[in-house]
Amino acid sequence: MSTMNTVGRPTTPNTLPDNDYKHPTLTGGRGLLQDEALIFEGEGWGKTGVDLPTPKTDGSDLGDLVRRDPIGLPGLSEPEAMRHYVRLSQKNHAIDLAIYPLGSCTMKHNPRLNEKMARLAGFSDIHPLQPQSTVQGALELMDTLSHWLTTLTGMPAVALSPKAGAHGELCGLMAIRAAHEAKGEHEQRRKVLVPTSAHGTNPATAAFVGYSVVEVAQTDDGRVDVADLASKLGPDVAAIMVTNPNTCGLFERDIMEISRLTHEAGAYFYCDGANFNAIVGRVRPGDLGVDAMHINLHKTFSTPHGGGGPGAGPVVLSEALAPFAPAPWVVNTGDGYKLVEREEDEAEQAFGRLCAFQGQMGMYVRALSYMMSHGSDGLRQVAEDAVLNANYIKARLEDLMSPAFPDGPCMHEALFDDEWLKGTDITTLDFAKAMIDEGFHPMTMYFPLVVHGAMLIEPTETESKAELDRFIHAMRLLAQAAKDGDVERFKGAPFHAPMRRLDETRAARSPKLRWVKPEGSNHAA
To answer: What is the CATH classification number for the domain harbouring 429?
Structure first.
């Protein structure tokens, strides 16, 4: 019997989707989705799509470096190369296709205006070794970006050069280490306190800098256990690392007390700023007693995310840590802009450099473009909309799914556990795979680790109510199907994706790290 769904379209509950996994196509293609072999399995090894002139030299001056074997790359004509990459794009989910609900990893729309600005010749065609007199516009942009980052955070200094969130963590902890060394306390302060719900990069970074990591417990309502923190603070602690809002999607209510206790113990407060977009324009971390915080430009200020980079994770620093900021930084001399690049004079106490040059110029342009197009009121609305969207999802799903922390609102992401799946023989992983069949990227699964079977959903501030309703509609239908015992829909999913479900355990334990051409076939095994 057909019923009406929440957005007014007729639907038949509990029917399998199209059943094309029971009747696969003969070619492996599905409508407009073409099936093709891996690029290394093609037959075009002896051709090229361009004409290259015969080399004028034989390469004998290269000695033992002369290639003796074929280069080992397939040859593609221009249409073959174009079709290959178009087909690859059809196999991937993207923010330009639909909502990308990964939690604690803000995947939001990147305005095309930002891309246009980054491609301006004065920004895209410059080189870091040019004379500073020829790149005054770029230095002014870096100075302006620094001004707004410090203004938004209430911090006096910023290091722009870190190239990712984890790189920013490294910058912050190295500044903290340098500060303790300057006071002669580094040898006694060898511990960093990290909550159980922290991002995995936090303890990893602390260990990389040479600290031992001590875990801080979490309360039943998903926040730092202040009593446990206080019991572990002492003269051997260098810093604490707290994410706020935290990875459970909650604001740390006791943040001021956490800061007070930390500073009383002579330690520094490092804040993981991964979730700054939930409070930007509303709360200044400097007012909370934070000493160092990285800002993921791709998460808060919309620079591109993923694909291996380039990234940007500037670090804002308190007055106590500002003298130890890494070179380089920009100074307005009144007659122009210059880079402080050496660990002397103004940078006498700098702990060194984090990268060869000044960081990711294209990311600076995109971030500042985003800030200027929004203005102060717009950035405040960024935080408000991010929190509103997450709470809307939580409110619309909590009657079918089980919120991990049901009491009170969440911040920028809604966190559910798998309590509601008990007795269904369906796991969080099964549910996530079924989401792929409905055309959605799964939410973050099994993280944070403190929540069993975690499903962490972050809609971001750039999603409209219509898109949220479309996502919620799919989630409700899947949740009801799970409760109604439609196990087959979930256990084999995804059925409609370009690739079916993989044996992930086997892949992790016995990975194939080298491609070998299959014998007697042009297709992947």
So the answer is: 3.90.1150.10
* Beta strands per DSSP E along 218-318: 237-243, 268-272, 292-294, 315-317
Q: Do 161 and 303 fall within a single domain? A: yes
pLDDT at 412: 96
Work out the pLDDT band at 518, boundaries 50, 70, 90. Answer: low
DSSP line for 265-283:
TT-EEEEEGGGGGGTTTT-
Rounded to whole angstroms, the Cα distance separating 129 from 57 reads 32
**Tokens at residue 448, please?**
């944070």
> What whole-number distance in Å separates Cα of residue 79 and Cα of residue 99?
31
- Two tokens at 334? 């009144």
φ, ψ at 11 (rounded to 5°): -150, 155
Do 199 and 327 lie in one domain? The reply is yes
User: Which residue segment(s) compose the domain that 246 sits in?
Assistant: 114-370
State whether 232 and 366 are in the same domain: yes
Contact 252, 279 (CB under 8 A): no
In a domain, 301, yes or no: yes
Same domain, 344 and 386: no
pTM: 0.88
In this structure, the answer to whether residues 330 and 361 fall within a common structural domain is yes
Query: Of all helices (H) and strands (E), which one includes residue 455?
Result: strand 455-457
Q: How many residues does the chain have?
A: 525
Strands of the 237-243 sheet, one edge to the other: 157-159, 315-317, 292-294, 268-272, 237-243, 191-195, 212-216
Q: What is the 3-state secondary structure (H, E, C) of 38-54?
A: CHHHCCCCCCCCCCCCC
CA 432 from centroid of its chain's CA atoms: 19
Q: Are residues 193 and 274 in the same domain?
A: yes
